[in-house]
User: Fold Peptidase S53 domain-containing protein from Sinomonas terricola.
Amino acid sequence: MGRPIKKLLSFAGTGLLLAAALAAGSASAMADPGGPNVHALENSTRVCSLPAAGEAACTARQVTPNGKAAPRLSAPPSSGLTPAQLRDAYKLTGTSSGGRTVAIVDAYGYPNLASDLATYRAQFGLPACTVASGCLRILNQNGGTTLPSFNLGWAQEQALDVDAVSAACPDCKIVVIQANSASFTDLGTGVQAAARIPGVVAISNSYGGSDASDAAYGKYYSFPGIAVTASAGDSGYKGASYPATSSYVTAVGGTSLVKATNARGWTESVWSGTGSGCSAYNAALPAASSYGTGCSKRAMNDVAAASDPNNGGLAVVYPTSSSSSTWGQFGGTSEASPIIASVYALSGNTGSAATRTYANSIPYAHPGALFDVASGTNGTCPTTQWCTARTGWDGPTGLGTPNGVSGF
Assistant:
């Protein structure tokens, strides 16, 4: 068991709903918390504020039973996904990265990150990952050690991210980059810093904003040879989200994951809150050309993982203030992005800098090695596969979810 966690203050958080204008080959819509996908978000609360122009917001959501404030817990919630369950669901049990490094890029500071991560890992019998051992590094957006000021919502996002990497890849090293703000410039600078760190093979970005052009921001995410993942957002089919729509990034959608008595032991369907859509700006992936996306440009998503806060949400140690923490249950596509980054790290196959091969092309060469998610929807749309699951590629879940590491 992990060490006890202090009781804490209640928190209030607001969060992300993405807005994006879609052009040729797509439709246009604005993200709206009262829109047709509001049912998907019941009993959960976004933790980050809506993004201003030029900014992103984190895509984490916390379970808030019956719409009430989340209870303060001294132990993991019984309904929260554990590391053993996550690895079983995605057939990762027994896999190892050999000590590869996953980087996480978020905004603002989180003073209790190391101690909260220690509690999480001890609770579930995972090997310690500490700053002292070199397993954990916490850096600013330039790679330095002077860290930015605390922000509650983004700190809760970081808690979900580091716990998700720990659950999916217990032997991975972790680098957390804390940007000075939620601007794309600061977050992107953080991605660049992560890419310079020796040993980093995957970089997770659990945030998004309006659809944007790689001509403006692509330099921050273009790292062939490193798997860069990004969350699709939590507003259902309402428009594309950047950086998930970048041609350089693996766009990660969300599923509902439920224990079952079938051969796999789990069932998966589209989480109705997951984002999906078509970029108005960025080029379609050549690897996706034969999959009938229906998008004239970049289609979102490529793959998916557990995201439904209530059905597949992860048990997490999270902060409620700059000095206090507790247990809770978190989801959103913020859960899925670090899971997929971890699977890339486990596979050791993250593209090639020498041949300028991006990691997002890899699953398209191995679709049969993924769990195909063929049921569920995340809204209404003019082209069926943009919002409704089907056999093969679809917008909400891409090609599917991990079935071991062979799809990556």
About this structure: The CA atoms of residues 51 and 380 lie 24 Å apart. Confidence is low (pLDDT under 50) at residues 1-38. The two ends are 33 Å apart (CA to CA).
